[in-house]
Design a protein that fits this description.
By secondary structure, the chain is of the alpha+beta class. A five-stranded antiparallel beta sheet has the order 4-3-2-1-5, with no helix packed on it. It is about 15% helix and about 20% strand.
């Protein structure tokens, strides 16, 4: 029994490719396969625009590396088919400014400043209204305040005794 035949034991190693671990990241959404709509190509990008990077699996050209997927950056260069984006990448204890060239199929305008711009416009409107009325406008954001105290009548609302139900077992 000293010479029992054994099958060779192979272990599967991790792959080291550029697209490793992107099975779901670069997959197209359900029923969103096929060619991209023309609206993707008709968007205007200008230097200084804030964009979100989202790799599109159906277009391999100009695709960002998976580490930049989901990042937000600022456009610093515009060419015919691509944009140059400056974004932050954390490397150990440092945050590096990276310049990445990406085709426009893999970027979209970010909505991260919309709520700020809406709040700014609302504050300007409040200030103009207060100036017209001769009062001070409160434009500082306040946390949600506690609800005011109130009394509950027990006239037609009898109190109910609430307790833990005893465990019956099976």
């Amino acid at each position: 029994l000293s010479f029992i035949a054994r099958a060779p034991f192979f272990t599967m190693t991790n792959t080291h490719g550029k697209r490793r671990g992107t099975r779901y990241m670069f997959a197209r959404d359900f029923r969103k396969n096929g060619p991209l709509p023309l609206s993707v190509y008709m968007k205007n990008y200008k230097v200084g625009d804030i964009v979100d990077i989202r790799g599109n699996g159906s277009i391999q050209k100009g695709m960002p590396h998976k580490t930049y997927h989901g990042k937000t950056g600022v456009i610093y260069n515009v060419t015919q088919h691509a944009v140059g984006v400056i974004l932050n990448k954390q490397l150990r204890g440092k945050i590096l400014k990276k310049r990445v060239n990406i085709r426009i199929e893999h970027v979209k305008h970010s909505t991260c400043r919309h709520s700020f711009l809406e709040r700014k416009a609302d504050n300007d409107r409040r200030r103009a209204e207060a100036k017209k009325n001769g009062t001070m406008a409160v434009v500082k954001r306040q946390p949600v305040q506690p609800r005011p105290g109130h009394h509950i009548s027990t006239k037609k609302n009898a109190p109910i005794f609430v307790s833990v139900k005893a465990y019956d077992g099976i």
